[in-house]
Fold:
Amino acid sequence: MPELPEVETVVRGLRAPLVGRTITGLWTDWPKALRPHTPDDFAALLTGQTVHAITRRAKYILCQLDDGLLAIHLKMTGRLYVSGAPESGDRWVHVRFTLDNGQYLHFSDARRFGRVYLAPTLDDFAPGLGPEPLEDDFTPAVLRDRLARRQRALKALLLDQAFLAGVGNIYADEALFRAGLHPRRAASTLTDDETHRLYDSIRAALRAGIDYEGASVNWYRKPDGTAGKSQEHFFVYGRDGQPCARCGQPIIKIRVAQRGTHYCPNCQPER
DNA sequence: ATATCTGCCTGCTCGC
DNA sequence: TGCGAGCAGGCAGATA
Structure:
């Protein structure tokens, strides 16, 4: 599942083939993926525009155009890659961009959850995103203030993109393990020390994910088609029944906020 | 206002 | 081997 580290890896991999390129065409067999325009309107607005920069905000891939923003959200199973042929043999390509150098940008998405946006600004399709966890303006004090007076479980808050941008199910579990905090712990009950631990752990888990170029648990691949290695370094995600790397007790899986949640009952006690 | 629930989607795994 | 059930889950939109 592409989260901040996976999306960041995709962004870095797309810069070389895409920045400076002009988009000359658009094909889709899944109009619902395009927001908010119809395919014809979308293509008319997009073609002829040059990609000047590719950045990331939360889990959105942002392509800065001459006029406005082309944004892509990979959701669960989305993949992006550039190749020299329009037919890639990939049955799940539902949107394809033609580039001025004869190459093609393919958006493959088995589950069809992914979306492609064309809008003047990010706020037009993704308003109200929380802070970027790896930016300098995200500080322990910011996290403390946002946790205060919230009764929700830590796991639920970490998944909430309005609370903090970019964290998903994998890195939420990994961050809570690193912090030694139970996923169901009520946000407002954290001590200053625990808040600092959570802050450090969120950033450490995300930075590790980026360093290992994302987690190829199932669908995620880098734009060059190879797998990331982040999953080889998980402490808890997908490791239910296996021994905790720190204490040897079995990792267990529960449901928190309708999400599969993995943790060590010994290293992350309930209270 | 905050918190929780439902629907969107389909590949994949598991049990029979 | 075939088949149905259940699971995976980010996010928009609805509901409590």
Summary: The mean pLDDT of chain A is 93. Residues 140-263 of chain A form a domain with the Helicase, Ruva Protein; domain 3 fold (CATH 1.10.8.50).
